[in-house]
Structures are given as structure tokens and as C-alpha cells.
Amino acid sequence: MQAEKITNLKRPKVDILPIKPEEISKYWPLADFMIREALRFSGQFAEAEDIKDALINAEMQLFLVLDTRGMVSIKYLRLPLHGSRILRD
Q1: DSSP code of residue 5
Q2: With CB atoms 3.0 to 4.6 Å apart as the test, which of 11, 16, 54, 71 could cross-link to 60 if both were Cys?
Q3: What's this model's pTM, rounded to 2 decimal places?
């Protein structure tokens, strides 16, 4: 059987919402569980509260990722990345 070339890969549309440091407390109830689970599976290099503090102090940036199916995930990045800035007003 010959392998068929897959040409119609559909990716779900996603919206990425950067969360400002002053808004972390507002979104923390949503992010807390996901961050705790991620840390548990990554060797527990930090506690969730350490991540929260870094987000509030603008050492990291939090993003909420929403897809068209209503699924929510979170991403956070340690800064500074080359040319990156924390989102602010």
C-alpha cells in the first residue's frame, strides 16, 4: 500500500490573550490548576506560587490560549527573550 500525501491539515483557529502583570490575580484561578499540573509533570522545578510571583513581577508573561472549540490552555514564558517586552498599557 502506498502512503497518501496529506494535504488538507486543518488547524483550529486560536486566540491568544496576553495577560498583563496587574491582571494576574484576576486570571490566577483559571491558570493555577494548569500551572500546578504542568509543574508536576516537569520535575517540580518550582512551586505554582513562584510562577505567580514571577508573573506579577513581570519576570514572566502569561498567555491564555482559546480555541474555536472553547478549550482554554495557558502558556507562560520566562523573560527576557530577545527583543521581548511584557505587555503593559
Answers
A1: P
A2: 54
A3: 0.69
b/e 19-32 (16+ beta carbons within 10 angstroms → b): bbbeebeebbeebe
What are the pLDDT digits (tens) for 34-89?
899 888 888 888 899 999 999 999 888 888 888 877 777 777 776 555 455 555 55
pLDDT in tens, 22-40: 999 999 998 899 899 888 8
Residue 74: inside a domain? yes
Q: Looking at the domain assignment, is residue 83 inside a domain? A: no
51, 21 Cβ separation under 8 angstroms: no
| Domain membership of residue 68 as a residue range | 14-78
* Per-state percent for the chain, helix, strand, coil, to nearest 5: 35, 25, 45
| Bond preceding residue 80 cis, omega within 30 of 0 | yes
Domains: count for the chain? 1
